[in-house]
Design brief:
The strands form three sheets. Strands 9-8-7-10-11-12 form a six-stranded parallel beta sheet, sandwiched between helices. It has a four-stranded parallel beta sheet with strand order 3-4-5-6, with helices on one face. It has a two-stranded parallel sheet with strand order 1-2. α2 packs parallel to α3, α3 runs parallel beside α4 and α6 packs across α10. The longest helix has 19 residues. By secondary structure, the protein is an alpha/beta fold. About 40% of the residues lie in helices and about 15% in strands. It folds into two domains: about 180 residues, Glycogen Phosphorylase B (Rossmann fold), CATH 3.40.50; about 170 residues, Glycogen Phosphorylase B (Rossmann fold, 3-Layer(aba) Sandwich).
């Protein structure tokens, strides 16, 4: 269970539902996904990226699928920062065995830094990516903003232009009960996230401190597993929680099954999405909130698709990724029930039309 693991399981389950045959191959250890146990999974025994590529390629040659969907990151299968030619070797062998290759690039390559080791890493990842594309029939990225990074590669290799495949929810949304201002004390504010790079828990905690000053009965729920406490970022969050002036109004759920996560999200009144790249279509957590009909506070960032996310219609854009802006947006939503209902209805439409697994799979099948 991880971002790409959840994506593979959900996409595989939807393809199975439509009558396709699906097998997921990955590096070990693997087990059937608890939310999609019907999807068959196989693990490579090798721990080295090249060995994993060889094992999976051999299995594909034996099974002879019509299509291979390769879920790609520049450092997949445990490769270090310099990446690996393993995916390119796998794709070449699968293509030679008769499969059409569809590449879904979740992460492409790291930026070009001046530090020598990082520069070499960035260049190698670009070389491996170009090698991989030589064997691909179709390329998808997860946000509109990433098309410009990969379009020159497609043009040079005379491939079809890259398309966008949006990421659906890892936890299937649950219906939400609208409590309203006249209901139990509130608002109940929250987010579902790990303490990953770019996710600004400091903004959420500081914003909640400002909300509580005006609404003492407010609650903050941090849903999911932050990650290992040995990580500096996790330690910083937990230390901030201990020092928080409204610590008694904050609940950290810890690790939960996905169905429980969906229920926790559905019990919120306002959802905060403090990602530094803004509301985007590469998150598996944001669609959980949208699909539950929650009004979401985010920013319009570098990976925000302006054709999908509309301020005051299906999301509320804070003026900046800072605590005062997020607190102001949350307070406005709570004090304006009509706005909250309008944004919630827009969130449900956005989810149903673009971010649920049905339209995502429709788009994929139509393209390949």
């Amino acid at each position: 269970m991880c971002g790409i693991g959840d994506h593979s399981a959900r996409l595989g389950a939807e393809l199975l539902r439509r009558g396709h045959e699906v097998v997921v191959y990955s590096r070990g250890p693997v087990q059937p996904h608890p939310e999609a146990p019907e999807v068959e999974v196989h693990a490579a025994v090798s721990t080295a990226p090249i060995g994993i590529a060889h094992e999976i390629a051999t299995a594909i040659e034996a099974w002879r699928p019509t299509d291979l969907i390769l879920q790609y990151t520049g450092q997949m299968w445990g490769a270090w920062r310099f990446g690996t030619p393993g995916p390119a070797l796998l794709a070449a062998r699968a293509r030679a065995a008769g499969a059409k290759i569809t590449l879904i690039a979740h992460e492409i390559f790291v930026p070009l830094y001046r530090r020598p080791d990082l520069l070499v890493s960035a260049l190698l990842q670009r070389v491996y990516f170009a090698q991989l594309l030589r064997s691909c029939d179709h390329l998808f990225v997860t946000t509109e903003s990433r098309i410009r990074y990969v379009a020159p590669y497609c043009e040079a290799l005379r491939l079809p232009p890259p398309r966008v495949i949006r990421i659906g929810p890892n936890a299937l949304p649950s219906p939400r009960f609208e409590r309203g201002v006249s209901g139990p004390p509130g608002p109940r504010i929250g987010l579902f996230s790990t303490a990953a790079l770019g996710k600004r828990f400091d903004v959420v905690l500081d914003a909640f401190a400002q909300v509580v000053e005006q609404l003492p009965s407010a609650e903050l729920v941090l849903i999911g597993d932050l990650g290992s406490s040995v990580r500096p970022g996790v330690r910083q969050i937990k230390e901030a929680l201990r020092r928080h002036p409204a610590a008694d109004r904050i609940r950290l759920t810890g690790k939960l099954p996905l169905a429980r996560i969906a229920a926790e999200v559905a019990a919120l009144d306002i959802y905060l999405f403090p990602m530094n790249t803004g509301a985007n279509t590469r998150s598996g957590t944001l669609p959980v909130a949208l699909g539950s009909g929650l009004p979401v506070v985010a920013i319009a960032g570098t990976e925000t698709d302006a054709g999908l996310f509309h301020d005051g219609e299906n999301v509320i854009f804070a003026r900046a990724l800072e605590s005062g802006a997020f607190a102001q947006a949350a307070l406005r939503l709570w004090r304006e029930p009509a706005l909250r209902a309008k944004v919630a209805a827009g969130a449900l439409r956005l989810y149903a039309e673009h971010l649920s697994w049905q339209p995502i799979t429709d788009g994929l099948l139509a393209a390949i």
